[in-house]
Amino acid sequence: MRRVLVIAEQAEARVTPDLLEAARCFAGDAPCESFALVASGDAAALSGWLDTVVSVPAPGTGVEAIPALVRSVAALHREFGFACILMPGSQWGSMLAPRLAARIEAALIPEVREITRSEQSVRFLRRVSRNGDLAVIETVEGAPAVVTLQPRVFSSSGKPDRTTRFLDREGQGAGNSGIRLLRKTENTEQDIRDADVLVSAGAGVGRRIDELKPLADALGGQVSASRSLVNQGIAPRRIQVGQSGKTVAPRLYMAMGIHGASQHVAALAGAETIICVNTNAKAPLCSLADMVVVGDAVAFAQDLLRKIKEEQENATD
Fold first, then answer.
1. pLDDT of 272-306, one tens digit each?
2. Over the chain (317 residues), what is each successive 10-residue block's mean pLDDT?
3. pTM of the predicted model, to two decimals?
């Protein structure tokens, strides 16, 4: 029987629907035993979602925990022989995956957006260039793979209907990680990859980016930015959309004064609806938009915010 292991972001200790759906795609129609690794948090919260949940110790939940996690997963792999190990394509997952693949001598397949199975092999679809080019990587049966998932591509409506066994590997992976945490700064902002609505600023907005926040708040979303604003020091890198920033898949993406370089366009592959506001109707991103508004982006944001407030006031009258 095939076995697949999912590793959630340890700071959350939560197996997200995309990990569960990716595991299902990997298994196909054949029997498959699903495992989850929990190094912190409440393992009982995963009851019903997977066949086996394994608890191991870890010295923290950030980068300092990665060496210990690698040792823990390698030991589990020796015990159970996983055909595939799945984790989120976050910064944390991108640090863990290559170390783990090297340790267990497995194939490393990052930023996967689709998984399909045939009788004797599995095919992984991933982006391989800044121009959005895609490639299919095929692994044969019996060859293990460490896979990170492109955010917000896989989705699942499954229910917790399994009988879950819980295993405790208390001494497994323990020990000095060799990494010491010197300082920790809490960021209370939601990751832009988790936002349903993004109001994104480009060169056409420039230093007026803060004027987009009231609109983003009114829409229940967040402000993001293009690479040009990050390079100028106007916006922090954590809110950058693009291949050198973050790949996003919001329900609504409002591109405010963004020209639309190929790297930016490639990072929007999963967006459901794109509204482009630009003084240049021939900007590359406009050709991909569901709606194009020709005009000043900040003025449009202010007008739209005013309309939203008027609608809200009328609704309460």
1. 899 999 999 999 999 889 999 999 999 999 999 99
2. 83 68 86 85 78 79 76 92 90 88 94 85 78 78 87 74 84 57 66 90 95 95 94 92 82 94 80 93 91 95 94 78
3. 0.67
Q: What is the pLDDT of residue 175?
A: 52
In this prediction, residue 30 carries a pLDDT of 78
What tokens appear for 19 in the block?
A: 């990990």
Q: Which long-range contacts (CB under 8 A, 24 or more apart) does 277-285 make?
A: 277/301, 278/204, 279/204, 283/258, 283/259, 284/259, 284/260, 285/255, 285/258, 285/259, 285/260
Q: Tell me the per-residue pLDDT of 173-206, one tens digit each, with 9 for 90 and over.
A: 555 556 666 676 665 667 898 889 999 999 999 9
Residues 101 and 148: their CA atoms lie apart, in Å, by 11
Residue positions counted in the chain: 317
Q: Among all chains, which residue has been given the structure tokens 């295993």?
A: 167
Burial track 214-244 (b if 16+ CB lie within 10 A, e otherwise) = bbbebbebbbbbbbbbbeeebbeeebbbbbe
CA distances from 67 to 5, 63, 86, 100, 125 (A): 18, 8, 17, 9, 28
Interior CA angle at 141 toward 166 and 126, to 5°? 90
The Cα 119–Cα 278 span in angstroms is 49
